[in-house]
């Protein structure tokens, strides 16, 4: 579990590509201070497992499903990435619940100054937009952000100077693809409600039953 508060920007040192998978070597500093084999680190919002590390880098395996559903396939040596260690018990919870399981990707379609901030508009498919609400939470490349507005095809977020300076959003422009994870609370609520509907027993209180027992003439 993560909070969407980025700890540092790392750099892709190398990518070893297989037929449909990859191994990433990522240069980092802060997230390595207490790292152990098997730890989870969110890389651009994607929960990945540390398989090897030194004092200056760590290595992760990327399976085919992750490459297919995220923006990792577009990265190369030298690409900056957002990094966050898994939340520890007792830590302050400054963002929102972020699982590191990306729902899909979106495309930046607009970027413009907005007072002292920068407004990003991100186009996304209907399957993702259904979970995005104004003033709700969204994770973009692992960053916990508040939604400003939602349209039929996109949503917007306002990025303050500090967040821009501390994350890879400073490098993103129109046309760039970003990882999206919708607020898990909304997804759980939908699952519970639709599950109940599917499992609900048909009512025995039918028109014929009422007529048979004298309630209808």
Descriptive notes:
- With 217 residues, this protein is an alpha+beta fold.
- The protein has two domains: 8-85, Beta Barrel (Elongation Factor Tu (Ef-tu), domain 3); 104-199, Elongation Factor Tu (Ef-tu), domain 3.
- 18% of the residues lie in helices and 38% in strands.
- The protein is built from five helices and twelve strands.
- It has helices at residues 64-69, 126-129, 161-166, 184-199, 207-212; strands at residues 8-17, 22-27, 40-43, 46-53, 57-62, 80-85, 104-114, 117-123, 137-140, 143-150, 154-159, 177-182.
- The strands form two sheets. Strands 1-2-5-4-3-6 form a six-stranded antiparallel beta barrel. Strands 7-8-11-10-9-12 form a six-stranded antiparallel beta barrel.
- The chain is globular and about 85 Å long.
Which characteristics define this entry?
alpha+beta, Elongation Factor Tu (Ef-tu), domain 3, six-stranded antiparallel beta barrel, 2 domains, 217 residues, 38% strand, globular
């Amino acid at each position: 579990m993560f909070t969407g508060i980025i700890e540092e920007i790392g750099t892709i040192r190398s990518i070893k590509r297989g037929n449909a998978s990859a191994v990433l070597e990522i240069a980092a500093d802060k997230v390595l201070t207490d790292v152990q084999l098997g730890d989870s680190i969110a890389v651009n919002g994607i929960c990945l497992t540390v398989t090897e590390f030194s004092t200056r880098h760590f290595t992760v395996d990327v399976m085919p499903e992750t490459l297919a559903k995220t923006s990792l396939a577009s990265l190369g040596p030298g690409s900056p990435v957002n990094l966050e260690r898994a939340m520890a018990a007792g830590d302050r919870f400054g963002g929102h619940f972020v699982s590191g399981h990306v729902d899909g990707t979106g495309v930046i379609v607009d970027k413009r100054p907005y007072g002292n901030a920068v407004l990003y508009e991100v186009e996304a498919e209907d399957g993702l937009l259904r979970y995005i609400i104004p003033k709700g939470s969204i994770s973009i490349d692992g960053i916990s952000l508040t939604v400003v507005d939602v349209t039929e095809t996109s949503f917007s977020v306002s990025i303050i100077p500090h967040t821009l300076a501390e994350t890879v959003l400073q490098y993103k422009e129109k046309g760039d693809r970003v990882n999206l994870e919708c607020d898990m609370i909304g997804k759980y609520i939908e699952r519970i409600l639709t599950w109940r509907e599917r499992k609900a027993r048909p009512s025995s209180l039918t028109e014929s039953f009422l007529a048979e027992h004298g309630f209808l003439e």
